[in-house]
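User: Just a sanity check before I run the rest of the batch. Below are the structure tokens for the first item. I only need the designed sequence back.
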């Protein structure tokens, strides 16, 4: 027993135990909590805002949470509608250009086949008919294969959509109920030394999450503005739409704004705007520079965490928690830092 006590008194052992418990706890316990833990985190983040509104309006927090969620849903619907209309408009314009280029390519291909037929002494139209038959057969096979796979994919997405709808329903109900009783829950957690220390850790975690979300929002807005301006200068169609989308994609480290900006430059160059390709590469460099300048100022000083560790936590979180690791990775980092700070040997 003395051996285990002496081992526990070593800081590296405590750090390892805390890290393992947090990482695997979020992996296997977090899914069991379903939508209720995200609902609690959301209410904890928004509670200062709801409290300030309640003091001014004397409206219950449950009603304020309902109004907020309705406004958020309306805003999200409008945003998705605008994005969808912009995407449809761009696809329609691209389709018109594609048909024009396809017509030119078809005429050029027919001329090439005509030259080959004359050189080989074949009857006029033989090669063109043969190529057309092969393309038709290939297209039929592709259509049948894609059709069968599309049915399976559609069923899978339908099932996932139903699960998502159920999850969102429980999330909304949980937010509304927790917003009403959040203050009394916090009062109950304050009693006792252990519960008080847990409440302090949770309070600091909420503060760090608020700083992280605020910083990422500012970075997203700045990158969207820079991308939209750059694409407008380069003459890309719908620059505001692609600029906002670039800002959103830049939030995901495994995608990044470059996955959108550079292909846009390539497409614009193919359609005759040759300066768009080097310009898009330069714009991607500027966007990367903007993120590298803003993140340390907005995150590092406030959280007392090196930005490179935060970036690593997101990459590692995605590898371990999949897409949810974008949030769970930083949360694991914050929890390890705070819990270890509470139990380490001074």
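Assistant: Here's the designed sequence for the first item:
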């Amino acid at each position: 027993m003395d051996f285990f006590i002496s081992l526990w008194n070593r800081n590296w052992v405590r750090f390892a135990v805390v890290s393992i418990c947090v990482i695997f706890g979020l992996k296997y316990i977090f899914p069991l909590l379903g939508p209720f833990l995200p609902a609690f985190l959301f209410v904890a983040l928004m509670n200062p805002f709801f409290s300030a509104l309640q003091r001014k309006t004397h409206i219950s927090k449950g009603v304020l949470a309902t109004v907020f969620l309705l406004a958020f849903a309306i805003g999200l619907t409008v945003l998705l509608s605008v994005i969808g209309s912009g995407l449809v408009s761009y696809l329609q314009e691209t389709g018109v250009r594609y048909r024009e280029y396809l017509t030119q390519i078809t005429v050029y291909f027919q001329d090439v086949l005509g030259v080959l037929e004359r050189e080989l002494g074949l009857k006029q139209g033989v090669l063109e008919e043969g190529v057309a038959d092969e393309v038709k057969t290939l297209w039929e096979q592709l259509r049948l294969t894609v059709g069968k796979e599309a049915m399976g994919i559609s069923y899978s997405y339908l099932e996932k959509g139903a699960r998502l709808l159920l999850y969102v329903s429980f999330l909304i109900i949980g937010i509304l109920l927790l917003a009403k009783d959040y203050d009394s829950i916090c009062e109950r957690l304050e009693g006792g030394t252990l519960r008080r220390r847990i409440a302090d850790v949770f309070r600091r975690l909420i503060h760090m999450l608020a700083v992280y979300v605020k910083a990422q929002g500012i970075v997203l807005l700045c990158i969207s503005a820079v991308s939209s301006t750059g694409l407008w200068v380069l003459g890309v169609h719908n620059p505001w739409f692609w600029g906002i989308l670039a800002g959103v994609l830049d939030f995901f480290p495994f995608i990044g704004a470059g996955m959108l900006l550079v292909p846009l430059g390539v497409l614009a160059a193919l359609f005759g705007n040759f300066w768009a390709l080097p310009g898009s590469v330069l714009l991607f460099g500027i966007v990367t520079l903007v993120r590298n300048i803003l993140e340390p100022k907005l995150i590092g000083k406030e959280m007392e965490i090196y930005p490179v560790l935060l970036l690593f936590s997101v990459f590692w979180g995605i590898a371990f928690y999949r897409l949810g690791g974008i949030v769970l990775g930083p949360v694991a980092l914050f929890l390890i830092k705070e819990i270890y700070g509470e139990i380490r040997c001074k």
